[in-house]
Specification:
By secondary structure, the protein is α/β, with parallel strands linked by helices. The protein is 38% helix and 21% strand. The chain has two domains: 3-232, Rossmann fold, CATH 3.40.50.10840; 248-409, Four-carbon acid sugar kinase, nucleotide binding domain (Molybdenum Cofactor Biosythetic Enzyme, Chain A), CATH 3.40.980.20.
Amino acid sequence: MKLGCIGDDFTGSSDLANTLAKAGMRTVQYTGIPSVPAAPDIEAGVVSLKSRSSPVGDAIAQSLAALDWLLAQGCTQIFFKYCSTFDSAPEGNIGPVADALADRLGADRVIVCPAFPGTGRSLYQGHLFVKDTLLSESGMETHPLTPMTDPDIRRWLRHQTSNGVGHVNVHDVFAGAQAIKAGLDRVHGNGQRFAVVDALKDSDLMEIGAAATDLKLITGGSGVAMGLPRNFGCTPGTATWHGQSGPSLMISGSCSLATQGQVAYHAARYPSLALDVGAIIAGKTTPDAALGWALNAGGRPLIYSSAAPEEVAETQERFGRDAAATVIEDFFAKLAQAAVAKGVLRIIIAGGETSGAVVEALDLTSLEIGPEIDPGVPALRASPNLVLALKSGNFGSEDFFEKADGVLST
């Protein structure tokens, strides 16, 4: 294995695996830390963790365990993948995990670049934009677990690390790989370990990748990984894929603005069931009952807890933030288990925490990377008879659920 990757959630990890596979690396996504060595032909391994919202100590411990496994596979470079909206609380987990990985690797120049232009995320003068809107005005400021209220990634990261945070600006990036390397050296010379690197377009990411050839650790969204495979001599290829016919189920736990639009679009065209936390707690709505509805509802049924920010806030106030999240995750985990037991062969999931809960409940160990459904979202094969799509909340077109089911079935 050449490139070792650690993802802080399952959807982001599949996004990264998709990026690397498209660029020609033989890539496998592992769900949790593997207990056996990787196959000898694997060039990039993506270890998916459910650590984004874990306690900081747990996130560090899991990430270091993943690092140890990847180094044992022979990896010469490590990539720490987090969301392209830099989802994190002021105390972490991005900074503390990056610190721990850098300390273990002895890395003194570490790129920080969540930019992903293909999905509208760009970084300019250290500020993260979602399309033409600052991150803090994009809807992420009301995220139920990691509200992003400051678009300045330099400032946000400084809350999370005792190491210095510098900046390689867009003018150096536009000048190409050598100028970016010089910028990284300048940041290091100022006593700063982390360098937030601007990027506005895919060609910027390719130059950043070229500048990162000799770095021990890179951090960012999946976009910045775009330029890494060619450093290992890889060229783009076409992955083989065969679809899976049979019953399907759509699950959505994301409350992002993009997912809310996708849920509304799908609900206007296909059977859809909205969940209520109170009804679940009271036992009025159960996973088995919801699955029974889905199996008899007709094609492409959707079961969702996605809601507007004011509804989410009301639910959190009534039941507690962590309790409400746990109830929904447990419900979807049991729903997925029951669905697979009843012969559902395609599952499409929106939301990082929801995806993690489902993948862990199904006890999946590795995922084969298939064709791209939308930017950042690949088709995944979990077993000979089960295929998945794991979508980050803000990703995907309005008709994502319908489109994903079409790709997974063909």
